[in-house]
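**Sequence with structure:**
===
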Amino acid sequence: MLPVCLLCILLAQTRDQPPSDWYHQAALTSLQDAQRDSATSLTCKIIVTDAHWKRRGRMSPVTVEFGSRNPIDIPFSVFFWLDLVPLDGRETDNFWAPFNLDGKPILPATPKVKWKSGASRIQIRVAPDDLLWAPTKSSVWPSLRFSRAINPGRYRLLLHVEMIGHKPLESNEIEIIVSE
């Protein structure tokens, strides 16, 4: 009977005290709040000088601008999203191509991007024909060159940014014409 009474006394003494890990949890919550604030300040925009892309040959690069009030210390993924514009309201093909902040393709083993710069704006140029593309309905990592993945047609291009624990961020849309 004594062990049960001792347990009751211990519980009664610690009932109003926060758990021992409370201080660590408060610090973690504060860090998550700071990360959320920096992530919500992130903006992105794409600029295309030539919206007519030929499947064969060099395309003009897409300028990608990121802006933020704060450095971003959260891993995030960046990729182009290309939607075929439907002619008759039917479901269409969509494609994606991930890339790094240096404008190079991301391979499956490449870590996600972190922007630790104190700069308020970063501008990079990305050549779509240098990236690896895949249909969004595919379960494989992008591995096709633009000329093999994308058929001629009218498309909407946008930049998509995903951050762990945050809503995805999308850029402005630009209409692109792809021809042979």
Notes: The two ends are 87 Å apart (CA to CA).
